[in-house]
Amino acid sequence: SSTTNSVLRVGPLKPSLEETLTATYGAERLPDGAARASFLSEHARDVRVVVTSGRTGVDAELMDQLPGLGAIVHFGVGYDTTDVDRATELGIGVSNTPDVLTDCVADTAVGLVLDTMRGFTAADRFVRAGRWPVEGNVPLTRKVSGAAVGILGLGRIGSAIAHRLNAFGCRIAYHNRREVAGSPYRYAESPAELAATVDVLIVAAAGGSATRHLVDRDVLESLGPNGFLVNVARGSVVDEDALVELLAAGRLAGAGLDVFAGEPQVPAELIEMDNVVLLPHLASGTVETRAAMEALTLENLDTFLRTGDLVTPVVSPAPARRR
Ligand code: 8YV
Fold it and tell me: What are the D-isomer specific 2-hydroxyacid dehydrogenase catalytic domain coordinates in residue numbering (predicted)?
């Protein structure tokens, strides 16, 4: 009916957000598996908004099953799990949570640069294993201050990373879909050209089909045996098989990864390597930032239900979908 304000949760969300969605909006969670079809036949027509995250998203099939869907509200800046092209065709609005997580993701990228180049967590394992009194010094590492840094994707997060590493005296270059007018940093024409000229390549590009394997074998070979890779974007942006192979062959110096192609699964070969730092997609995971992401998610939801508009739209809802 046209009076319904039904909100559907798709995939797991921050527990406090799930609680608010359930208590304040009466939102139910879309069941997985066999229970889904009967749930949809009962509730599909009532659903006006989906709240989801970069972990799950909404595919074209689910959109087609929700005829009254007006908006897909994401907890997170990345929305590559949602079929945005199909949403645009159907006039369904899509929102994300930009800006509020930029600092924490950039902080994490800098942390991974420091950790991979200086070998902190590997040295921590060395101390914990009781090897210091027996073996003495750990091997020398690589200097971060003054290093040549390449940033792939000079958007909000890439720019915040550049700003931080600029304060480390790093020489910064970048590659982006389009050259950024007025940027103080050197523009490289391609990811491979960028990789060939830097000590560390930091991936900060959006995920999705347009950037799939943008960091391919050729880019990784250009980075070379003295080069480090850091990824705080999406695992899909990097050819992970090539990464593993080149690391195993000593043709890359190391890698710092917060994201993986098949996360939460991490390739077994990487687990064995001492020159890689492996994080469980934690970049935005601080109390402050997750609270801000939650607030912005609810602001998008509330605003859509009240006005038919989104606060931070990726796609604005079409008039017919705003009712
Ligand atoms: C979130 C992220 O943890 O914002 C993003 O795109 O990847 C992370 O901040 C994730 O989206 C939540 O599932």
Answer: 40-314
